[in-house]
Amino acid sequence: MKYHNSMLVGYSRVSTQDQHLELQRDALEKAGCEKFFSDIASDAKTERDGLEQALEFVRPGDTLVVWKLDRLGRSLKNLIEKINALQARGIGFKSLQESIDTTTANGVLFFHIFGAIAQFERELIRERTLAGLASARARGRLGGRPQALDEKTRALAISLYNDESNQVQDICATLRISRSTLYRYLDAVPVVLST
Question: Which of 6, 94, 107, 134 would be a feasible disulfide site paired with 61, CB 3.0-4.6 Å?
């Protein structure tokens, strides 16, 4: 496939108006970026116009460059999805602080290992969670009216909900509760939920 003249495209983000983009912008310029996009938005905010514009701008052969991995993704799963989507479009990715560069063979290998470890970790957590629930059920600690669930189970419901790989219907089936009960628990507990 013939690419156009490839370009390094920089993306930077800070969480608040009090923080400054200059440090990231300087590092991106030093790395050779020719075009820049940025956001002032918290990590939890789903709408990031600068990132969307950067993703629309990059073309096959280009490389999207960030100062640090957490500038791009809200979670490890989200980060891996974004980088895989870039690779599928023939677009490279670089993170300056972590020295990750998917335009090199070593960078691609590293990122595949990174993704495999993340998947392995999710599977371990899920396995331990299901084993814990089975053990609790065997001791008679689950069941009955949903309101009778203890704080530990309530915390487990929140933890399962916050893991983006879990579907709401699977959480409800595992905990033997209805959707409305799950959402009631989420509203009742003073915890900031990830988006």
Answer: 6
β-strand partners of 63: 8, 92
Q: Helix, strand, or coil here: 98? A: coil
Which residues are designated catalytic?
15
**DSSP collapsed to 3 states, 53-89:** HHHHHCCCCCEEEECCHHHCCCCHHHHHHHHHHHHHC
3-state secondary structure (DSSP) of residue 92: strand
Amino acid at 157: A
Report the distance separating Cα 120 and Cα 13, nearest Å: 29
What distances in angstroms separate CA 21 from CA 10, 41, 48, 82, 149, one per listed residue? 12, 12, 15, 22, 46
Distance (Å) of CA 117 to CA 111, 144, 184? 10, 38, 33
Note if the pTM is more than 0.85.
no
pLDDT in tens, 111-170: 677 667 767 777 777 887 887 777 777 776 654 444 545 677 788 888 888 888 888 888
**Inter-axis angle of helices 105-138 and 151-162, to 10 degrees?**
150
DSSP 8-class letter at 140: T
CA distance 119 to 112: 11
- Answer whether 35's CB lies under 8 Å from 7's CB: yes
Q: What's the token pair of residue 108?
A: 């691609």
